[in-house]
Amino acid sequence: MSGASRIYEKRLGDLDGLYRDSEAFAAEVSQRGADELVYVVHEQKYDSSPGALIIGTSTLLPGAVSTEFAMTRGHLHAVADRAELYHCLSGHGVMLLDTVDGDSLAVELTPGKAVNVPGHWVHRSVNVGEEPFVTLFCYSADAGQDYSLIERAGGMRTLIVKDGEGWSQIPNPDHRGYETAAN
Ligand SMILES: O=P(O)(O)OC[C@H]1O[C@H](O)[C@H](O)[C@@H](O)[C@@H]1O
Ligand SMILES: [Fe+2]
Question: Does 74 sit in the ligand 1 pocket, CB within 6 Å?
Fold first, then answer.
């Protein structure tokens, strides 16, 4: 299929402020290096019109900073009503979802499972496994991403943390509410 293709990478040094434990983050940067890849997105879009789709794959490598698993920055779509499909191709992850009004969900994804993220939901991928977590995604080409809402809110409502050999979700004590952040 013809059209613009893009590869978008995030390295450890790009993710300052994402994890709660800033000392543990600094230690990871000095140990693993600021250039270490955390996630890479391969996307393809043939057009930017409202009806067009962006499709691609997101590959989030395994890892953790202190107790928090590797994650994407997360966002609300700039055109907030735009939805997105994520279909897990490999690995073991969680799609973390919040609404501005107070709903939160953590959807576990393993190969063959999919999550249909409605518009108006903030979303982030988390890798809770030991292999790369790879999803196929599809969303409207005009959606865009708003990264500042999560930052202003002090992070998403929930943290996905190590729990023995597995993972669990705990409330994020730094979260200030999206309602306040929006004003
Ligand atoms: O945009 P981030 O929160 O950094 O997450 C990385 C990527 O996640 C998903 O795969 C989205 O479909 C991409 O459009 C996005 O760029
Ligand atoms: Fe998205």
Answer: yes
